[in-house]
Amino acid sequence: MTMTKLLSVSILALLLMGFYAAPLQAQDAMQGSGMDMKNMKSQMEQMTAQMEQIQALMKDSMAKMAAADAAMKSHMETEQASMKGQMELQQAIVNYLQTMTDHMQTMKKNKGIMDDQKK
């Protein structure tokens, strides 16, 4: 999300530079070369079109970032559920092995008792 904010601030800065620099350039050109209002109007329309294009790109970029964030969240939740399932399986195996060990020890004790009784 920080990357998106950085991108937004950079684009805004470029727009402001272009927006404030263009009137100064237009004034200089008007004074220096006798630029008429028609040319200024076409420059303003061009700048407006560029701003709209940049805004569309930003909206598209933001939508893609939101989709990527949602996909990452979903992936992380799936990974977490998978790890939980693996831990539960491992715990079940440990419990089974402990039960088998206890059973084997009980059988060994009972065999020892039976051997003692035979003697």
Short description, anyone?
The protein is mainly α and 119 residues long.
**Main sheet properties:** none
Low-confidence stretches are none
Share of helix, binned: over 70%
The shape, in one word, is rod-shaped
Q: Could you give the order of the helices and strands? A: HH
Mean pLDDT across the residues is 82
Structural class label: mainly alpha
Q: Over all CA atoms, what is the radius of gyration?
A: 37 Å
The total beta strand count reads 0
Straight-line distance between termini: 80 Å
Strand content: under 5%
Q: How many separate helices?
A: 2
* Number of separate domains: 1
Question: Helices and strands in order, then pairings?
Answer:
Layout: H1 2-33, H2 37-118
Can you offer a commentary on this structure?
With 119 residues, the protein is mainly alpha-helical. It has one domain (2-118). The chain contains two helices and no strands. Helix 1 (2-33) runs antiparallel to helix 2. 0% of the residues are buried.
Give a quick set of tags describing it.
119 residues; mainly alpha
